[in-house]
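Question thread 4412

I'm putting together a teaching handout and wanted feedback from people who do this every day. The idea is simple: show students a protein as raw sequence, then show them the structure tokens that encode its fold, then repeat with a second protein so they can compare. Below is the first pair exactly as I plan to print it.
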Amino acid sequence: MKLPITLALTLLLPATAGAQQAHHDHKSAYAGEEVRSIKSLSEDDISELRRGGGWGLAKAAELNGMS
């Protein structure tokens, strides 16, 4: 009874270790954004808002009763 359990663990443990290593090597799509002056806005967003351009959502807001 112990042999099948030992064999299963011997086969499964290296696979889970490899999956964990692959997870640690993954770089986040958000890496580097923590150093922004406003973390949730890109430099393009900030310059567009300073210019007064907005994000082009006025029509959507108006159609949904937000104006």
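The second pair follows. I'd like the answer to focus on this one:
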Amino acid sequence: MPLVPKAARADRFTFGDLLVEATADIGTRPARLAMTVAGTILGIGALVATLGFAQTAAGQIARQFDAVAATQVVVEPASARTASGSQVATSTLPWDSADRVTRLVGVEAAALLGEVDLGEETITAVPVNDPSAPAVASPPLVGATADLLAVTDARLITGRMFDSGHELRGDRVAVLGARAAERLGVNRVDSQPSIFVAGLAYAVIGIFDEPQRRADLLDAVVIPLSAARADTALADADELVIRIAPGAGPQVARQAGIALAPDAPDSFDVSAPAGRSDLSSSVQADVNVVFLILGAIVLLAGGLGIANVTMLTVMERTPEIGLRRALGSTGRQIAAQFVVESIVIGLLGGLIGASLGVMAVVAVSLLQQWTPIVDPFVAVGGALLGAVVGLVAGGIPARRAARIEPVTALRSA
């Protein structure tokens, strides 16, 4: 009898044969397959959905916190206390301060303003003062740059705000706060009404209301800063008001002084909101933890379902396993067959579950008018996690199948 080469005696059971054997039995029992896959679908679907809902909810929470976050920075000249106890400014804001800071990242708009002290002069709606009329306090007069209403989120009731052209030319135009307009008897601007500031006529071109960040402007008359400098000898601006993007407060606070005075950045007092709220981050973290715990619980249930069904499959197929062992299959091959079968079932359930989880996040977000946020790695990882769950769940049944002795298995047939 000729000798058989060692290579010919090698195990001919290839990986392709393993896949065929492992998948051949999967579709023979559709009802059991559906029940087994259902557990994985629920587990992976719940995990992907919960992670997606956690990310979406975190995004919504961040937007809600950003909506109420302080988005205003105020820069004022530094001051020192004199011997008499009064505060004296030790620096001045450049007249082009608004232009300088608008170049900074995170700055959306900026306005330079200063309150004008008229002394004995008044603001009236008539050119001639009646000496017999009772004295009425004049509204405050504020010189400001053109972006004041944008910075303070004020709403124009009628007319318009003066622009950079008015500012450049020093035009005598004015916009009135709603209460100042009521006090001066001005309720419309289509007839080009005028008010008289220290005897000088200013055309009223707009009336505004609801300044969210400077409620005191409702009582004020606002004129271009250049006109205030020319007509009232305004010496210095009082403050620079900056509207910033949410979370940009610390950065703008550090850079504003450098932009205004590179040689003396500490010569200004900057009031800025903090960055992203710690409460916002804490709430987002709590939401993520809750959703992750729920997803892990459901995923564990799915894994146990795969393990139970695989164990039942091993018990039902004990005679078949014994026959395969008798025909030469090794315990390692038997174990590999059941492990691959569990992996295929887990992967199938993972693919379906991840798809359903993403669809659930998108559907709920659309119904709630949210922005759905699902990390692509979560969806892909969910499908692969199904295979991992199948591998872990099929490990113990596979080891049991590998230990079945052929004689014992055939006797129980």
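Top answer:
Good format. For the second protein you could add a caption like this: The chain is about 50% helix and 15% strand. The first helix runs from residue 15 to 24.
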